[in-house]
Every structure is written in structure tokens, then in C-alpha cells.
């Protein structure tokens, strides 16, 4: 007899609306996660609740208003589309659900729905291509915190990352090939940044700055190193797109201070413009759906930086969104 299987797709989350109050609520939940800001509890509470959120909510609200569409947040729109498209691709023994790590649809509410449905197997798939404690790790921790109280705990499969999956890579390649790559002077693979201390925890006996995972990927030691998998993702994509090594840069965006992964994406954009690059292509392989960090930070803010420093055009490669190959990738991840 075939097992009744529930697939739980998860993404980071989005405010309910771009209004200041909803953005504030979202930031409170997100930034109070001990894996996101991994400092002592009391210091985190003071920093987040008394400094960051009160001063950041209003400015973030303005940016979210630029992102918002008449149908809502792109992250939520594409999440629902992907859920429905994947459901159509799977047989009747599968049921697909969507939840967000922060805000709605909440993990607590969706997992309660799954508990009442009593599947034989639960596949938890955070849609983060590269593993990081602050994203994938936090999502798994929250799921286990909820599930551990269930009377009946089904067989559980955790999909921890898929940065090297052919379907994931080929979807990005398809989106890039909508443009003539010969027209571009340089390419940037931009990933969400992380504090160095978080990356260092993956290699407890070695400092990240002393690692050479940007040059050589070693699966036995680097598989859960975020920095290493970002460089490996970029290398695999560059090979598929025939981009020579000297024409691309791996960089990290959305930093809070200087003690984050380098080089910083905005600095690389400025440097390329000042070196004479006129047309720049930027990839965002850490994001499966267009969101604040892609559409606004890269598409608008970096585009302006590039032009202000002498460049002509910055082109953002769209995210996986609801691309058919992305749906096939998810199907493969849950069925094989």
C-alpha cells in the first residue's frame, strides 16, 4: 500500500502588509530568533526590541510598499503558485502544504492541520538552496519543536539543501539565457550575507578567513558551510553558462556590519562600474522567489549604484518563481 505523504514547503516569510505595524510585527518575530541573531538572550532582546525594530520598521515599510503588488507580496504569491503546481505534478497519495517560518501561514497552524490529517510520511522542504543555521536550521528546529508534542509522529524526511541539484541549476540557466550573455561585461552571483561568526561555527577548529572553500569545494568537510556552497553553486552555474572565471564575482548582500561575509555585493557593483563595465548581470541564487532582496535591493538599489558610478545597465536574473523546471525540481526532491 502506498504511503500517504504530506509535503511541507517552507520559506522565510513576509509581513501581512507593507504597513508599519505589520512590518514591525514581522521584524520582531524574525530578528528575535536565536539562530538569526546568535548573541546572548538579554543582549538580543535589547538590541532587537529597543534599537533595531523601533528604528527600522518605518524605513522597511517604505521599501515593502515599493515591492508590494496589487495581489500582495511576491514571495507569498509565488509560494501559493508553486504549492498548487507541485500538487498537480504529484499523485493522489501526496498532499502539498505551504508555511512560512515567520508570520502567515504559520508553521504552528499548518503543522496542526497536518497532524489532524495523520499522514504516514512528512517531507519538510525549506526552499533555501544553501544550508544555513539561520534559515534551514531555524526552520527544522521550529518544526521539531512543534512535532515533538504529537502523539503520533510519522516518518519524517528533511531536505536540507539542493544547491547542486541539476534542476535547480538549469532553471537559473534558463532564466539567464533569456538574455544575450555576450552583451555583458561582468557577472555577479549575489547571496544573502551571514555574520562570520555563524559561518565559523561550521568549522569549529578553523577560521572562515583561513579556509580556501572559495577555490576548492570538499564535500566531506564543506557540505554544510554556507560560504563553500555559495561558491560551488556559482562555479556550477558559470560552467553551464560558459562564463570564464575572470568574468564573474561571488559576493554577499544585505550585511548589517563589516564582520559579515565578503566581498560585499554593493561594493563589487561600484568597483565594476569604476573599472569600466557598462553592462552587468546579477544572479541571486540563494532566493527561489523574487522578494525584497532581489527586486528592490539588487534590481533598483544596485542598479542606481551602478549607473551613478559610470555603468549603463544592471540586469537582474529573475528568481525561480513558478518556472516549470523549478516545479520539476521540487517533484524530484520529494519523490526520489
From TrEMBL:
Its main location: cytoplasm. The keyword Zinc-finger does not apply. It comes from the Bacteria. GO terms for biological process: heme biosynthetic process. It catalyses: heme b + 2 H(+) = protoporphyrin IX + Fe(2+); Fe-coproporphyrin III + 2 H(+) = coproporphyrin III + Fe(2+). Its EC number is 4.98.1.1. Keywords: Cytoplasm, Heme biosynthesis, Iron, Lyase, Metal-binding, Porphyrin biosynthesis. Fe(2+) binds at residues 192, 293. It is found in: Cytoplasm. GO terms for cellular component: cytoplasm. Pathway: Porphyrin-containing compound metabolism; protoheme biosynthesis; protoheme from protoporphyrin-IX: step 1/1. InterPro entries: Ferrochelatase, Ferrochelatase_C, Ferrochelatase_N. Gene3D superfamilies: 3.40.50.1400. GO terms for molecular function: ferrochelatase activity; metal ion binding. SUPFAM superfamilies: Chelatase. NCBIfam families: hemH. Belongs to the ferrochelatase family. Catalyzes the ferrous insertion into protoporphyrin IX. This is Ferrochelatase.
Amino acid at each position: 500500500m502506498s504511503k500517504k505523504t504530506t509535503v511541507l514547503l517552507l520559506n522565510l516569510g513576509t509581513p501581512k502588509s507593507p504597513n508599519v505595524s505589520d512590518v514591525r510585527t514581522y521584524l520582531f518575530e524574525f530578528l528575535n530568533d536565536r539562530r538569526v541573531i546568535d548573541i546572548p538572550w538579554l543582549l538580543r532582546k535589547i538590541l532587537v526590541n529597543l534599537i533595531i525594530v523601533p528604528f527600522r520598521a518605518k524605513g522597511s515599510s517604505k521599501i515593502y510598499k515599493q515591492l508590494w503588488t496589487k495581489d500582495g507580496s511576491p514571495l507569498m504569491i509565488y509560494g501559493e503558485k508553486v504549492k498548487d503546481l507541485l500538487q498537480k505534478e504529484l499523485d493522489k497519495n501526496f498532499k502539498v502544504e505551504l508555511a512560512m517560518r515567520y508570520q502567515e501561514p504559520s508553521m504552528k497552524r499548518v503543522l496542526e492541520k497536518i497532524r489532524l490529517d495523520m499522514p504516514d510520511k512528512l517531507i519538510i522542504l525549506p526552499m533555501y538552496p544553501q544550508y544555513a543555521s539561520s534559515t534551514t536550521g531555524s526552520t527544522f528546529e521550529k518544526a521539531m519543536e512543534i512535532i515533538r508534542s504529537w502523539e503520533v509522529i510519522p516518518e519524517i524526511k528533511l531536505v536540507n539543501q539542493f544547491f547542486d541539484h541539476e534542476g535547480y541549476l538549469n532553471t537559473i540557466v534558463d532564466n539567464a539565457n533569456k538574455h544575450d550573455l555576450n552583451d555583458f561585461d561582468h557577472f555577479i552571483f549575489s547571496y544573502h550575507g551571514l555574520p562570520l561568526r555563524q559561518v565559523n561555527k561550521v568549522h569549529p577548529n578553523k577560521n572562515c578567513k583561513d579556509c580556501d572553500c572559495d577555490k576548492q569545494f570538499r564535500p566531506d568537510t564543506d557540505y554544510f558551510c554556507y560560504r563553500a556552497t555559495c561558491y560551488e553553486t556559482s562555479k556550477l552555474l558559470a560552467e553551464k553558462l560558459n562564463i570564464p572565471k575572470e568574468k564573474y564575482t561571488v559576493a554577499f548582500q544585505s550585511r548589517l556590519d563589516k564582520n559579515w561575509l565578503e566581498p560585499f555585493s554593493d561594493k563589487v557593483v561600484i568597483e565594476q562600474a569604476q573599472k569600466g563595465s557598462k553592462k552587468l548581470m546579477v544572479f541571486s541564487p540563494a532566493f527561489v522567489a523574487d522578494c525584497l532582496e532581489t527586486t528592490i535591493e539588487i534590481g533598483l538599489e544596485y542598479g542606481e549604484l551602478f549607473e551613478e558610478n559610470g555603468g549603463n545597465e544592471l540586469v537582474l536574473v529573475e528568481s525561480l518563481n513558478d518556472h516549470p523546471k523549478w516545479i520539476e525540481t521540487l517533484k524530484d526532491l520529494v519523490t526520489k
